[in-house]
Amino acid sequence: MIATNYKIAYVHLTSKIKQTVVALMGVTFGISMYVFMNSFMTGVNDTQNTLAFTSMSHVHIYNDGPADNTNLLKRVYGPNVLGDVRNAKVIQYVQGIKNPGDIIALVKKQSEVIALTSQVNINIFFRNAANKINGTLSGVDVENENRVFDIAHYMTDGNWNDLKYNPDGVILGAALADRLSLHINDNVNVLTPDGVSKTYKVIGLFQTNVANVDKTKAYLNINSARQLLSVNQDYLTDLQVNVQDYGTTAPLVNRLAPVIPYKVESWQTANQQLEAGSSLRDIIAVAVSLTILMVAGFGIYNIMNMTINEKIREIAILKAMGFSSGDVTTIFLTQAVVIGIAGGLIGMGLGYVLAVIINHVPFKIGGLDTLPMAYRLKDYILAFIFGLSTTLIAGYLPARKASQIDPVDIIRG
Amino acid sequence: MENNIALSSAHIVKYFYQPEPFKVLKDLSFEVEKGKFVSLVGKSGSGKSTLLYVLSTMDTDYEGELVVNGEKLTGKSRNQLAAFRNQHIGFVFQFHYLLPEFNVLDNVMLPAMKLNKLSRAEIESKAYENLKLLGLEEQALKLASKLSGGQQQRVAIARALINDPSIIMGDEPTGNLDSKNTEIVFDIFRRLAHERGQTIITVTHDEDFALKSDRIIELSDGEIVKS
Question: CB of A377 within 8 Å of any CB in chain B?
C-alpha cells in the first residue's frame, strides 16, 4: 500500500522530468549558496582573526594603572562640601605586574590555557640619525612569544630565534625599518621615557600585514628590556595568554579576574569591532542564504501546486477508488522530500565545488594570496537541514490541499 | 430476505446551497437487490447523478440513511468511507479517468494494491484475468493514454472489478462511446450482474441501454417517479 503511494510519487516525478529538474535546481542552488556563503564568511572571519591574533592574544593580563583618585575631598566629604584641589597628581605605586611568578603559575594551571608569554613593553623613540619615530619596544620571551603569536611565520628577513642569543639585537617591523631607512645589520638607537639611550643592532625584520604593528613595533629579548629599564629579573608589564578555543574566553576571564589584582581582558572586550565584524558577516551570510532557500521554497511550492492542479482529476479518481487523504498527502509529500534530499545532496556537492573554485581566485591584499575559505562540516549539515525543512514546508502545503480535494466536485465538474 | 439487499437508502434528502438553497433530492427511499442491473434515468437536473454520488459514499452532505451490504455508512468518516469504497464499490465514469502515466496493467492493479490483501503476483494475475475478460490482454503494457476511448473505458471497468466489489456504479459509462462500444460495455455489465452476482447501478441517458437493464429507477425533480 505504502509502496503503491511511493510508486505513484515516483511516476509523477519521472513523467514530468523537466519540472522535477527545475524544482531540484532551485533547492540545489539554495543549498549550494548557503554552503558557499557560510564557508566564505567563515573563511573571511578566520583570516581576520588570524591576522588580528598576530598582535593580540586571546586573554591579556596587564596593569591598567591606578584609578582616578585625584578628587580625594569629594570621596571623603561627599558632593555637598565644596573643596578645591588643583594640579593633583596620580602616583602609580606598582609599575608592571608585581609578584608575576604566582600569577603565571595560576594561569598555567587553567585547563584551557595552551600558551602563555611574558612581555616587557616600553614606549620609546627609535632614532637613526635625523629620523625619530615613536613606537613600542617589546621585550619578549622568545620561544613563548612565538608559541602565542606565531611571529616566526611573519619574518621577512633574519631568524626569529636569533633574538634569544643576541642581547643587543632587535627585530623591527618592516614598515618601521623602512621609515627609519634601516636594513638588517644596521644599528638603531632607542630612547626611553626615562631618558636612557641605547644602541641595538637590527637582526631581523617582520611583517604581520597589520599596518599599525609593522609601522611601530620592535622586538627585543625580555632580559635586555629589563636591563634597559634597570628593573629586576622578574619584572614584566604584560602577560599574554592563548586558550584552546578563542571563541570562548569568558569562563577563563571570569575565573581569573577576581583572583588577579590586575586587568584581565579578553580579545573580544578589547576589540569589540572585530567581534562585531564577525557577527555581522555571519548574519549577512545567513540572511542571504536563507533568502535564497526561501525563494527555492516558493519555487517548489509553485511547481507542486501546478502538478496538483494538473493531476486534480487523478487525485479525485484515486480518492474515489478508496485512497485516503493520508495516502494523497504521502504521494505529494514524498515528491517534495525526494526533491529536498536529492537537491540537498547535489547542493552540498556543488557548494563544495564552488567553495574550492573561489578559494583559488587570486586576492593579493593583506598577506592573502587567494580568497579565504573555510570547510566546516557544520555548514554542510545545517544547509542540508534548512534545505530539507524548506522543501518539507513548501511541499506540505500543496500536499495538504490535494488531500482535501473533494472527489465529487472534480468528477462531476 | 434481508441479506439479499445490496443497497438501501432511507429518506435521502439533499440540498444544493449554490446559487441559492435548493432541494435536489426529496425524501428518496428504495432498495436494490443483489445481482441486479439497475439504471437510474431522468432528465437533466432531475437529481439522478446527485443520487448516484450519495449512494457512492463520496458525497456525505445529505440527510437520511444509507446502508450498503448491511453496513450503515451514514455518519462514517471520509477515510473510513474511502476504505469501504476501496473494497466494496467499483466505479466507472463517463470520462475514463485512468492515470495516463501508468500502463494499463498498473491502472487495473491500483485499487488492489491499495487494499493490500493479496500478493503482488496474485494481483497481477487477477488483473490479467480481468483484462482478458474485457478483451484487453494485448494492451496490458501500453500506457493508458495511448488507448482509444472505448478501450480506456473497458480498462476502467477492469479496474472497477479488481477487488471483486459487490456493487459497481457507473456515471454515464457509455456517454462517450459509440454504439458498438456501448454494446460491449452493456454486455459486460449484464454478465457481471447475472453470472457473478454483482450489483450494477448506472446513471444513463441512453434509453435503449436503460430499457435492456433489469430495473429502471426514474427520477424527476428529485423524486422517484418510476421504480
Answer: no
Q: Which residues of A touch B159 (CB under 8 A)?
A: 321
- Interchain pair A320, B91: CB under 8 A: yes
Q: How far, CA to CA in Å, does A396 sit from each of A22, A152, A234, A329, A400?
A: 18, 58, 70, 8, 6
Strand partners, A70: none
Say what the pLDDT of residue B1 is: 42
Q: Does A315 touch chain B (CB under 8 A)?
A: no
Whether A28 and A350 have beta carbons less than 8 Å apart is answered as yes
For A1-33, the DSSP string reads -HHHHHHHHHHHHHHTHHHHHHHHHHHHHHHHH
Which amino acid, one-letter code, is at A94? V
Give CA–CA dist B64/B74, Å, rounded. 8
Question: What grid cell was written down for B59?
Answer: 458525497
Whether the predicted pLDDT of A413 surpasses 70: no
- pLDDT-derived band at A222 (thresholds 50, 70, 90) equals very high
Across the strands, what pairs with B13? B63
| Contact present, A40 and B129 (Cβ < 8 Å) | no
Pick among A1, A2, A4 to test the B interface (most B CBs inside 10 A): A4
**Residue A353 pLDDT exceeds 90:** yes
The model scores a pTM over 0.80:
no
Q: How far apart are CA B74 and CA B58, in angstroms?
A: 11
Instruction: Give the nearest partner residue to A322 out of B97, B100, B114, using CB atoms.
Output: B114
The whole-number average pLDDT for the span B174-179 is 80
- Check CB contact under 8 Å for B159 and A321: yes
Q: Which of A4, A323, A412 sits opposite B53 (nearest CB)?
A: A412
CA A411 to chain B, closest CA, distance in angstroms equals 8
Q: Could you tell me which chain B residue has the CA closest to the CA of A409? A: B59
**Average pLDDT for residues A191-195, to the nearest whole number?**
90
Q: Which of B49, B79, B116 shows the shortest C-beta gap to A325?
A: B79
Closest partner CB to B101 (pick from A4, A11, A318): A11
B→A contacts (Cβ < 8 Å), by residue, are: 49, 53, 56, 58-59, 78-79, 82-87, 91, 93, 95, 97-102, 106, 110-111, 113-116, 159, 171
- Can you give the pLDDT at residue A135? 93
| Closest to A241 measured CA to CA, from A333, A351, A93, A115 | A115
Chain B within 8 Å of A282 (Cβ-Cβ)?
no
Q: What is the DSSP string of A250-312?
A: HHHHHHHTTTSSSEEEEHHHHTHHHHHHHHHHHHHHHHHHHHHHHHHHHHHHHHHHHHHHHTH
Cβ-contact B186, B39 below 8 angstroms? no
